[in-house]
């Protein structure tokens, strides 16, 4: 997976050896600090799949490395995990190692390259990922902020659940309405988030 990366754009910059080393460092830290728990990996569909999740954590959204680490540890590093990210995270030298870990800019071209399907890239409407609001976060050392200055996440327990896969052509037809698909996915996710939230007694202690 790591050979002949030239000419393949951002997708081709992923380095599985670097990714494995990074996961080896991050996984135990996240397991201890966030008491990370990932459920439902048995439901991962074979082959290419688009994983849609809620965005939490402000500038440092730890959901992605927690889930990616769990997937790699379960299925190995020959099955790549690519993360579509807002262009703002690539500012400075940090962009180089993010791309080596499989983080790529959120564009239709990159989605098509990662998923090997232009139709799916068009369907998900990646023009929607441009940031239109600034999330408020509370943490250390700056207290209540927007994106910058960036707070370190509080040690809140992070629970992630992989839901049943959605076969879009089977459920919505070969030429689905993007808005209808979007509304359905959001509703399924919200029900799961409400259920997971109900399991929590305290926001930080978990």
Q: What order do the SSEs take from the amino end to the carboxyl end, as H and E?
A: HEHEHEHHEEEHH
Helical amount: 25-40%
Lateral strand order in the biggest sheet:
1-6
The structural class is: mainly alpha
Total strand segments: 6
How far is it from the N-terminal to the C-terminal residue, by CA?
38 Å
How much strand?
5-15%
What would you call the shape? globular
Protein name: Phospholipid/glycerol acyltransferase domain-containing protein
InterPro entries: Plipid/glycerol_acylTrfase
GO molecular function, one term: acyltransferase activity
Organism: Mycolicibacterium thermoresistibile (strain ATCC 19527 / DSM 44167 / CIP 105390 / JCM 6362 / NCTC 10409 / 316) (Mycobacterium thermoresistibile)
Strand and helix layout:
Elements: H1 16-33, E1 37-39, H2 63-75, E2 83-85, H3 94-100, E3 103-105, H4 108-115, H5 118-123, E4 137-139, E5 143-145, E6 159-161, H6 168-172, H7 178-198
Parallel strand pairs: 1-6, 2-3
Antiparallel strand pairs: 4-5
Helix pairs in contact: 1-2
What features would you describe in this structure?
With 206 residues, the chain is mainly α. The chain has 2 domains: 16-162, no CATH class; 166-205. The chain has helices at 16-33, 63-75, 94-100, 108-115, 118-123, 168-172, 178-198; strands at residues 37-39, 83-85, 103-105, 137-139, 143-145, 159-161. A two-stranded parallel sheet has the order 1-6. The longest helix is centred in the C-terminal third of the chain and has 21 residues, at 178-198. The radius of gyration is 17 Å and the shape is globular. The model is unreliable at 1-7 and 126-131 (pLDDT under 50).
């Amino acid at each position: 997976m790591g050979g002949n990366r030239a000419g393949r754009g951002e997708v081709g910059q992923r380095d599985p050896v670097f990714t494995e080393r990074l996961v080896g460092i991050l996984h135990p830290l996240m397991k201890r600090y966030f008491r990370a728990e990932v459920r439902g990996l048995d439901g991962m569909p074979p082959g290419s799949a688009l994983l849609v999740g809620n965005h939490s954590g402000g500038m440092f959204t730890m959901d992605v490395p927690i889930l990616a680490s769990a997937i790699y540890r379960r299925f190995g590093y020959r099955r790549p995990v690519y993360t579509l990210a807002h262009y703002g995270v690539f500012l400075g030298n940090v962009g180089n190692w993010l791309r080596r870990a499989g983080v790529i800019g959120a564009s239709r071209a990159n989605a098509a390259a990662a998923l090997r399907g232009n139709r799916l890239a068009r369907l998900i409407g990646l023009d929607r990922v441009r940031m239109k609001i600034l999330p408020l976060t509370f943490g250390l050392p700056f207290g209540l902020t927007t994106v910058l200055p960036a707070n370190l996440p509080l040690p809140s327990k992070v629970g992630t659940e992989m839901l049943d896969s959605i076969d879009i052509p089977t459920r919505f037809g070969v030429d689905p309405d993007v808005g209808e698909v979007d509304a359905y996915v959001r509703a399924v996710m919200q029900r799961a988030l409400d259920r997971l939230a109900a399991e929590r007694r305290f926001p930080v202690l978990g």
